[in-house]
Amino acid sequence: MTGGRRSVEEHAQHVAALLEPLGSIPPAQVPLARALDRTLAEPVHAPISLPPFRNSQMDGYAVDAASVAAVPATLAVQAVIAAGDAASTLTAGTALKIMTGAPIPDGADAVVPVEDTETDEAAGTVTVHHTTTSGMYVREAGSDVHAGALLLPAGTLLAARHISVLAAVGLTDVPVRGRPRVAVISTGSELVTPGEELGPGKIYNSNGPALAASAAANGAEVTSIAHCEDDPEEFAAMIAHAVAVADVVFTSGGVSKGDFEVVKDTLEPRGGTFVSVAMQPGGPQGTAVVDGVPILTFPGNPVSALVSFEVFARPLLREIAGLPAIASGTRPLTIGLESIPGRRQFLRARLDGDGVAPLPGHGSHLVAGLATADALLDIDPDITTLESGDLVKVLPL
Ligand SMILES: Nc1nc2c(c(=O)[nH]1)N[C@H]1C(S)=C(S)[C@@H](COP(=O)(O)OP(=O)(O)OC[C@H]3O[C@@H](n4cnc5c(N)ncnc54)[C@H](O)[C@@H]3O)O[C@H]1N2
Ligand code: MOO
């Protein structure tokens, strides 16, 4: 604690301990069509070789290289082999017209590209102008990967190129790390859902969609998104639903010092802990466990809610889902800044060449300003002034 406030590190440890059981979510077998951005839970070995059979790299003529050792060489063309045809046999001293991807006939060991030949349709012959060597333009079976070899190690974050090879070896589904199920509850009687009428005193709910998007972007499966009036009974019912469908619940609003702090008022009597964390934004934080399911209660201000997610939830969700950690680093400031003493500040900023520039405006309601940021500056509580050129910790958004 610092001055009655819990440090960011202490709160992060507390949250990590609460979310620890999520580390044992079992892996899932998912179809390739839903495997993008998932993380392989186990290594995948090639069930077949690639290419599965010896095939042509060019549209041209399959020959025995020895038969075109002296050029020009004119050979009878026996037939045409298309991609998809079954294997055929080349009669010695002749050629077979062959398409890219078609199986190389037995007896052939090279392909002469069509550009290096002259065809006499009437005579049924091809004249080859350049000599070739055994293996030229032949794609050997297994030259990419052999059956049984390691295709992708466990931990691979599946991108299109991985889906490509998994499909190429004929796999229909793959074992991936389980995703934590997340429920999001936005609280506040002032909130209306986009699409509804914005009556007097009302604002659109932005935390619900933002927290759901943040969770989904960091490896979670969002199973419930709900909005609750500042009504303890309604909130208690929503919590009961949320813990039934999720592994972790995020709430926003209702945790500070007002008359209608529905989250705090409902969860504190049920063993929840509500603290002030020495950070800005995101000071008021709470946690609870209901029916064994951890609940993180973020403050309602939109910037505070998202910064809270970035600092406390994002690293853990990514670890649980097997996603790589977000690489934070340091960069020189392109503009100097002032910071409040005693609070770890997370300032909105924009990457600027090799440096980083803090954005103007510190209010936690500045959601349009937040949308122009692509990073947070992580300023230690004991720092009050930084000059242009000073190195700062940067957390990419
Ligand atoms: N007397 C004090 N007042 C406040 C303190 C304090 O220490 N003493 N802390 C301030 C800080 S810092 C924050 S952050 C907020 C946190 O308050 P709550 O978590 O109780 O949040 P609300 O009061 O419900 O809402 C705050 C603010 O954010 C807007 N909001 C809430 N939910 C949403 C949403 N889903 N989408 C968009 N905007 C939302 C809400 O309308 C309020 O304007 O408390 C300060 N007050
Ligand atoms: O922490 Mo509040 O989260 O400063 O706006």
Account of the 3D structure:
With 397 residues, the chain is of the alpha+beta class. The chain folds into 4 domains: 8-25 and 179-321, Molybdenum Cofactor Biosythetic Enzyme, Chain A; 28-43 and 146-176, Molybdopterin biosynthesis moea protein, domain 2 (Alpha-Beta Complex), CATH 3.90.105.10; 55-139, Molybdopterin biosynthesis moea protein, domain 3 (Molybdopterin biosynthesis moeA protein, domain 3), CATH 2.170.190.11; 329-396, MoeA, C-terminal, domain IV (Beta-clip, Beta Barrel). The chain is built from 7 helices and 28 strands. A 6-stranded mixed beta sheet has the order 7-4-6-5-9-8, with no helix packed on it. Strands 16-13-17-21-20-18 form a 6-stranded mixed beta sheet, sandwiched between helices. Strands 19, 22, 24, 25, 26 and 28 form a 6-stranded mixed beta sheet that branches. Helix 3 (207-217) runs parallel beside helix 6 (302-321). The longest helix has 20 residues, at 302-321. The chain is elongated, with a radius of gyration of 31 Å. It starts with 7 loop residues before the first helix and ends with a strand. The model has no long low-confidence stretch (mean pLDDT 96). The structure holds ligand LQZAQKY5 and molybdate ion. Molybdate ion (MOO) binds at residues 280-283, 299, 301, 304, 364. Its EC number is 2.10.1.1. Catalyzes the insertion of molybdate into adenylated molybdopterin with the concomitant release of AMP. Pathway: Cofactor biosynthesis; molybdopterin biosynthesis. Residues 183-319 form the MoaB/Mog domain. It holds the Pfam family MoeA_C.
